Amino acid sequence: MKILHLSDLHIGKSVNGFSMLNEQRHVFRQIIAYIQTEQPDAIVMAGDVYDRSIPGIEAVRVFDDFLTELALEGVAVMIISGNHDSPERLNYASRLLAEKKVFLCGTFDGSVQRVTMTDEYGEIHFWLLPFIKPSNLRGLLGEQEIESYSDALTVALEMADIDDAARNVLVAHQFFTGEGEALVRCDSEMNLVGGLDAISAKIIERFDYAALGHLHGAQQAGAEHIRYAGSPLKYSFSEVWHNKSVTLAELAEKGSLTVTALPLAPLHDMREIRGKLDTLMSDEVTSLADREDYLRVILTDEEEIIDPMGKLRSVYPNIMSLDFENRRSGVDIAEIGLEAERAAALSPYELFSEFFLDSNGSTMSGEQAKIVRELLETEASE
């Protein structure tokens, strides 16, 4: 069975004041073309369909057009909500659309929604798990011991009747991390302080394929079969080196998996250019790439320039950011002040959690977290 895995569409997103809707329409056309050539059996969207919980009218139209085209291809479509989506809005008309093989799972009601499909090897169970917080589970089950995101996911999956002898696919939108693994993170993601939303990928190792959303860089989390598809477009300058794609996962008999990245080409790329004003505006440089790309420009001129943005935009109309790199711009005191202010607002445990995640690329184990809490409590009582 072929599964086309995509996530983090963020329809309606603006980057530095520039609407991404035309860019999104462009990559959606490429995705439809891949469906026509690769002929997958199922499409899974692992959350963050929209960029805001209340999307604009044009964003809704873009998604409606995309979903309609997917439905016309006759392929099963499974969609969960992410942390940017409104679960209730995304869940609208879910029962009606299920008759058209479009399965929407926006809200979590205490059970993990299952969609079962068959191929020549038998049944494949798709488990649709929208973004959940610990408070979601406490509200549903009244279990006060559910304190962390890891607790919440563990309890949610324990409630599902999963037959490990069958083939199972998880569709989820959470921050799963592999042990000792440094995952690529981006400025356009919504991050919790200190990685408090991080969950060990060991919790979902039992699945034959885990189609994840949340991180914007395509990558695996702990194992080849646990994967983030990444966003289809670059949504921040921390992503300029990403090669955006959608993921094609092919499941044969139990234990057989092939993963292929299908590249996506943007209408206009997002990139950085650095140098002196006259050099960057020269024909030699401007001819190297599309002038209408979304740019972060870093000027290295030492002398003061009058209206540098106006001059640059006469050549590069889609400049998103202009910075200076010279002797006069050496240290950003304001940025240092903001970091100090943010750090001062954190608890000692949150500070250590963030340090541990940055240093090791993964969160503390339950035993490590317990030791740190006990040490901090001892220190506070002395």
Structure description:
The structure is a single chain. This protein has 382 residues and is an alpha/beta fold. The protein has three domains: 2-263, Purple Acid Phosphatase, chain A, domain 2 (4-Layer Sandwich); 270-329, no CATH class; 333-381, no CATH class. It has twelve helices and 19 strands. The protein has helices at 21-38, 57-72, 87-90, 94-98, 134-141, 149-158, 277-280, 283-286, 308-313, 333-344, 348-360, 366-381; strands spanning 2-6, 14-15, 18-19, 42-46, 76-80, 102-105, 113-119, 122-129, 167-173, 175-177, 198-200, 209-213, 219-220, 226-228, 245-251, 257-263, 270-275, 294-299, 319-324. Strand 13 (219-220) and strand 14 (226-228) form a beta hairpin. The mean pLDDT is 88.
Can you describe this structure in just a few lines?
With about 375 residues, the protein is of the alpha/beta class.
**Low-pLDDT runs:** none
* Spatial separation of the terminal alpha carbons: 61 Å
Q: Note the main sheet.
A: 6 strands, mixed
Quickly count the domains.
Answer: 3
Mean pLDDT, rounded to whole units? 88
Number of helical elements = 12
Notable traits:
30% helix; 24% strand; 382 residues; Purple Acid Phosphatase, chain A, domain 2; 6-stranded mixed β-sheet; 12 helices; alpha/beta; globular
Set out the fold topology.
Elements: E1 2-6, E2 14-15, E3 18-19, H1 21-38, E4 42-46, H2 57-72, E5 76-80, H3 87-90, H4 94-98, E6 102-105, E7 113-119, E8 122-129, H5 134-141, H6 149-158, E9 167-173, E10 175-177, E11 198-200, E12 209-213, E13 219-220, E14 226-228, E15 245-251, E16 257-263, E17 270-275, H7 277-280, H8 283-286, E18 294-299, H9 308-313, E19 319-324, H10 333-344, H11 348-360, H12 366-381
Parallel strand pairs: 1-4, 4-5, 5-6, 8-9, 9-12, 10-11, 12-14, 17-18, 18-19
Antiparallel strand pairs: 1-15, 2-3, 7-8, 13-14, 15-16
Helix pairs in contact: 1-2, 5-6, 11-12
